[in-house]
Design goal:
heterodimer; A: 101 residues; alpha+beta; 3-stranded antiparallel sheet; B: 317 residues; Rossmann fold; Cytochrome-c3 Hydrogenase, Chain A, domain 2; 2 domains; 5-stranded parallel sheet; two-stranded antiparallel sheet; 13 helices; globular
Chain lengths: 101, 317
């Protein structure tokens, strides 16, 4: 009979918001056999976006995470650009790599 | 001096207020925690999911201690909205858990219910905590609400204070710390309860319309408008909601006098107001409501007449 243990870490602190980890380890083989990471908060941002103008996604999308709003904002900008068939101006392309800091 | 414990809970939020808090400069978080400012020294952050060292069940210890009265006096700070867990329970789930205690999920609703009778003050940081904000946007899938709505209109903390709202998306760290530091002074009897407006926002932080203190206001007076992003003039035609939003950011900057929406070229989206992010604040690129333009137009014309008349006044000094 292999000795195994189960780890349950919830809340997982020092990250953005609400997260937990559940892992199973095999003590004889010194290996993790199973691991799940799960978020413990739900807002339904996709549902909230329905009915808004496409450009609103630039502001609402970045509210999904306060630690990393920039990638969400840039992804929304690109999606809106594609939506309207409007390529970004050259100045934006030059500045974009700097947006992530 | 008697230490004051801070219990910072995270509801349906994005931690943006915490990130903004870390960037505060006037006063800075380090100054407040290490006691460089003697008036507000003795602040102990007992629970904060993003910056605390312990994790797992141990991390929830301070919440149990507060429930048993071992941490008195303590201030509860909420960031993020409070969901209506009854909706989630219909399908056997939950919307916002903050930890696992004895194999059972503890929801933010339960913790708030446990602590509301013992807290010296309840502070809602950010628009989600104050009025529901993003999470309560139409159609409000999770039944999210602000802390004030959750606790009821007549709620009073042990200091006799109602829920204090410090909204913003995110709230500038300077505003957060100024509000909390002011509360510490109130708790120690060194200052009176701050004057508050109809939405329980301290007036010293939310007394002015963003429009009135906007660095671009001079261009409006001359009728110069930006027609494209990147131009330096008034952004009224680009959808600025400054005329209907109370916010100090245009004048004081986001952190340490720098940044802020109009300074960096973004129109105001009205993030400090109840009702955000729905109409009249969205669509964000739509001009603010007609009423605000009419009021402004009348005042503007009165102002022009007064300004012209003032040229004929004799100087008094």
């Amino acid at each position: 009979m292999a000795k195994s243990t189960e780890l349950n870490i919830e809340p997982l602190t020092r990250i953005e918001g609400h997260m937990g980890v559940n892992a199973k380890a095999d003590l004889d083989a010194k290996k993790y056999t199973d691991a799940h990471v799960y978020a413990t908060m739900f807002r339904g941002l996709e549902d909230i976006l329905i009915g808004h103008e496409p450009a609103d996604a630039i502001w609402l999308g970045q509210r999904s995470c306060g630690v990393c709003p920039t990638p969400h904002a840039i992804a929304s900008v690109e999606a809106v650009d594609m939506c309207y068939g409007a390529p970004p101006p050259p100045r934006h392309r030059t500045a974009q790599p700097g947006h992530h800091g | 001096m008697q230490p004051i414990n801070v219990i910072w809970l995270q509801g349906q939020g994005c931690t943006g207020d915490t990130v903004a808090l870390i960037s505060a400069e006037n006063p800075s978080l380090v100054d407040v925690i290490t006691g460089v400012l003697p008036e507000v020294s003795g602040i102990n952050i007992a629970f904060h999911p993003t910056i605390m060292a312990p994790w797992g069940e141990k991390a929830l210890g301070p919440l149990e201690a507060a429930k048993e009265g071992k941490l008195d006096p303590f201030v509860v700070v909420l960031e993020g909205a409070v969901p209506d867990e009854k909706i989630a329970q219909k399908t056997g789930g939950y919307f916002c858990g903050i930890g696992d205690m004895h194999g059972k999920i503890v929801t933010v609703t339960e913790v708030l219910n446990d602590l509301k009778g013992k807290a010296a003050a309840m502070v809602a940081i950010g628009t989600c905590a104050a009025y529901g904000g993003i999470a309560a946007g139409k159609p409000n899938p999770t039944g999210a609400m602000g802390l004030g709505a959750f606790l009821g209109k007549d709620y009073k903390s042990t200091l006799g204070l109602p829920v204090i709202n410090v909204p913003g998306c995110p709230t500038p760290g300077d505003s957060t710390l100024k509000a909390l530091a002011y509360l510490v002074l109130v708790a120690r009897g060194a200052a009176a309860v701050p004057a508050m407006d109809e939405f329980n926002r301290p007036k010293f932080l939310y007394g002015e319309l963003a429009h009135h203190i906007c660095p671009r206001a001079g261009y409006l007076a001359e009728g110069k408008f930006s027609h494209h992003f990147g131009e330096p003039y008034c952004m009224g035609l680009l959808g600025c909601k400054g005329p209907i939003a109370y916010c100090r950011v245009p004048k004081y900057g986001f952190s340490g006098g720098f940044g802020g929406c109009p300074s960096t070229g973004s129109p105001c989206i009205g993030c400090t107001e109840p009702g955000f992010p729905d109409a009249p604040f969205s669509p964000f690129l739509k001009k603010s409501p007609v009423k605000s333009w009419v009021v402004e137009g009348i005042l503007d014309n009165i102002g022009k007449v007064k300004a012209t008349a003032s040229r004929f006044h004799k100087r008094s000094i």
